[in-house]
Amino acid sequence: MNKKLRSLIFYVVTSLVCSLTYGQQQEEQQPLAQILLEIENKYDVKFSFETKTIEGILITSLPPNFNLDQVINQLKLITNLNFEILSKRFIAVTLKSNSDSENAIQQLEEVVVTNYLTKGISKTNNGTIEADTKDFQILPGLIAPDVLQIAQKLPGIISVDERISNINVRGGTNDQNLILFEGIRMYQTGHFFGLISAFNPYLSDNFTVFKNGTSAKYGNAVSSTITIRNSNDIKEKTNVGIGSNLLSVDGYTTIPLSKKMALQLAARRSFTDLLVSNTYDSYFERIFKDSELNSSNNKTQLALDERFLFHDFNAKLLYDIDASSKLRVNLINMYNNLNYNQVFTTTNNNFQSTESKLNQESFGLSTTYANVLKNDVNLSTELYFSKYDLYARNNDITNNQIVKQENKVEDYGARLDISKVVSPSLKINLGYQFNEIAVTNSEDIINPDFMSITKEIIRTHALFGEVVRFSKSRNTYFRLGARVNYFNQLKALIIEPRFAFNQKLSESFRLEILGELKSQTVSQIIDLQQDFLGIEKRRWQLANGRNLPIIKSQQVSAGLIYNQNDLLVTIESYYKNVSNITAQSQGFQNQFQFTNDIGSYTVIGFDFLINKRIKNFSTWVSYSFSKNDYHFENLNKGHSFANTLDLQHVVNASLIYNLSNFKLGLGFNWHSGKPYTTPTSQQDNNNSIIEYNSPNHSRLPDYFRTDISAIYNFRISNKVKANVGASVWNVFNHTNVVNRYYTNDSEDSLIKNDNRSLKFTPNVSFRLSF
Q1: CA of 126: how far to CAs of 111, 214, 755, in Å?
Q2: Which string of b and e fits 453-484 if b means at least 16 CB within 10 Å?
Q3: What is the mean pLDDT of each run of 10 residues along the chain (770 residues)?
Q4: Rounded Cα–Cα distance for residues 486 and 466 (Å)
């Protein structure tokens, strides 16, 4: 463990001891009835409840700077009661049903910041960011509550190449993120090869983001963890929603089958194979401009006809077996398909046509059974299966060659989770997880004839446990846990401690300290730049203990939160180190493109956010600074050099206006250019290999983009609601270069290749719900 990390850990432990001592100063608790009376007088509202519902519940006074929405949210978490707003003045207080037992387990976790960026996004005392898509209002450039788009608005999270599903959290690659949909690990998260989120935004109920201090029950990912869930409640009435934008049509429904059973369904399909819009043209150019589709010899190509489509489907069955147990079954399917036909002239002036295709499909299934046992012990068991399949067939008429490639991942698992709320101040969580991942890679080439099939399997056994502790004053929150992993095929045992600490310093200030050690056995590599037609270049691989070791990470962060009078200011500094990465996983397009080595990267930085709300306006500015460096023993003579994902300065600014049924969002996005490698001024004409300067020594021009969106809600009738949305991505059509690399042409002349971001891209939507 290096000296910097030891020093940081010493600082963390010292801070925890001092803050825990401070947190034991107890505030006097009062009956809930008294607190509700004070709220009624202050906010001119009226609570309706049965006396036995709130009898015996004691809580401390709530912060005086909270608005009514914040007060209600806090009461829900602290008391584990339902607070239903019946009108502007009347609020009903009731006991939660047994179907809310999962929320009861989490009752020690409280929201410390509501409206983190906009309504529906909150920050909790365990260090996570949570979003309730039902309460979500609007973000610039978005006309739907897209969970992966929302995540990229958070400080410290960005997509370097502008793809929605390629999320880089504090300098990490996308494959280092754990993305769970209803407990299913997703190996594909986007349509249109990353430009559109593959998760239906209208059935997804909430999502949680861990940037650090991850719960011990989550493993096998060294960067962030993002969990996505649909609604877990059985509704009394059928709800239906349908809508369309310039790329796809979708629909969803929630159907109560009985008082104890309900079904949720959602489906979406593009119509890009039937109707082409300006939005489609922008997306197509962004993804396919630098791929095989545009690399053919234009002198002989007469025609190109492409057909692209995507669809997704997910379903959830909810069954409340009895008063103390429930069963949930989830299914998800995603599909991308690209077919393109080319027509060429031959040397004899005849015509010849070829057909190539690329398919990308994911399927996931999970079953969860939860039961409340004696003494309020909560038991949860989960079985899950995830499958990802990427297949490409490239018919290369120039070289008279056919190449078939496939990358397949099959992930099976089971998890047992036992939780007990010992007291209002203490919760214990223990569990076991078994996981088996199989990865198959195959390649079949005709001319020259070649075939290769490899399959690797890793089975993992993991024990995890954590303790959540509140001080009696509820000013101090502390979660301490660990995950013990045994990787069967690799004969490796790894222990991963994690912690989260939150201390209320005053009515306006909070201190937050987070830390974690994590590991990962499945990751993506980029073997050749033209893998899978040059469109989807990444393929999943498993650690083997030799040239692909187990990736490990260590991270610690400390931050301050100021929240007073609708002004929020947060600043968080962090140190992050990820070791045992391979050069093949970093996408080098320089002198290291076909060189493999094992190394690490280290990120030091901070995230800053200021958010002010004034009546119907909400505005925020975030700034992130980071320094992200590689270190490979055999690359660059062992000297450190800038990470390919090193964006040293990132600024986001947004203005949100919300008036009744109309919402407007305007946002500006700027960041410094990413590193790239330039060729030397003098090239050896007798050598077809490009000679380069120092790796990643130059930087692309700064990136700038302006987005705007608007949504208007209205009613067609008493039972039918509608909304119209419009957005423009890159309003000023600014040309942004997101990647630059160099190649040689047939005459060994140097060619500069620039990958450009999305140009001016409009979109409109219309939705009905009833």
Answers
A1: 9, 9, 39
A2: eeebebebebebbbebbbbbbbbbbbbbbebb
A3: 48 43 50 85 81 76 75 79 75 66 52 83 90 81 85 93 89 95 95 86 86 96 95 89 94 94 95 86 83 55 72 95 93 92 68 82 97 88 97 81 93 96 88 98 91 95 95 89 96 97 94 97 83 83 93 97 93 98 91 92 97 90 97 94 96 92 94 96 82 96 96 92 95 94 81 91 94
A4: 18
Cα–Cα distance between 250 and 712 in angstroms, integer? 19
- CB-based contacts of 34, cutoff 8 Å, min separation 6: none
Q: Read off the tokens for 292.
A: 């095989």
The first and second tokens of residue 593, run together, are: 């493109």
pLDDT the model gives residue 541: 95
Q: Return the structure tokens found at 347.
A: 């040397």
At the topology level, CATH places domain 239-769 in Maltoporin; Chain A (2.40.170)
pLDDT computed for residue 396 by the predictor: 76
Rounded-to-integer distance, Cα 74 and Cα 113, Å: 10
- Name the residue type at position 381: T
Give me the pLDDT at residue 21, please. 41
Rounded-to-integer distance, Cα 691 and Cα 273, Å: 43
Enumerate residues 6+ apart whose C-beta is below 8 A from 147.
131, 133, 197, 199, 201, 204, 207, 226, 228
Alpha-carbon gap, residue 608 to 648, rounded angstroms: 14
**Tokens representing residue 670 in the block:** 């700027």
> How far apart are alpha carbons 627 and 38 in whole angstroms?
49
Tell me whether the omega of the peptide bond preceding residue 64 falls within 30 degrees of 0, making it cis: no
pLDDT score recorded for residue 347: 62
The rounded distance, in Å, linking the Cα atoms of 556 and 14 is 14
Per-residue pLDDT, 164? 83
DSSP percent split of the chain into helix, strand, coil, nearest 5: 10, 55, 35
Structure tokens, 111: 């929201």
Laid out side by side, the sheet with 90-95 consists of 46-48, 90-95, 81-85
The DSSP string of 480-492 is: EEEEEEEETTTTE
Q: Please write down the long-range contacts of 2-8, taking CB distance under 8 Å and 24 or more positions apart.
A: 2/577, 4/575, 5/554, 5/556, 5/575, 5/577, 8/556, 8/575
What residues does each domain of the chain span? 1-96, 239-769
The tokens for 571 are: 């600043």
Residue 48: strand, helix, or coil:
strand
Burial of 419 by CB count in 10 Å (0-12 exposed, 13-18 middle, 19+ buried)? buried
Residue type present at position 80: N
Distance CA 760, CA 282 (A): 8
In Å, how far are 56, 58, 157, 251 from 53, measured between CA atoms? 9, 13, 42, 39
171, 177, 179, 184: CA torsion to nearest 10: 180
Sequence-ordered strand ranges (E) for 488-530: 492-504, 509-520, 522-525
Residue 767 to residue 244: CA distance in whole angstroms: 7
Question: CA-to-CA distance for 699 and 708, rounded, in angstroms?
Answer: 28
* Burial degree of 269 (CB within 10 A; 0-12, 13-18, 19+): middle
Query: Would you say the C-alpha torsion 72, 75, 80, 83 has a positive or negative sign?
Result: negative
Q: How far is the CA of 588 from the CAs of 74, 632, 682, in angstroms?
A: 48, 13, 22
Q: Provide the token pair at 770.
A: 């009833």
Is 3.20.20.10 the CATH classification of the domain at 1-96? no
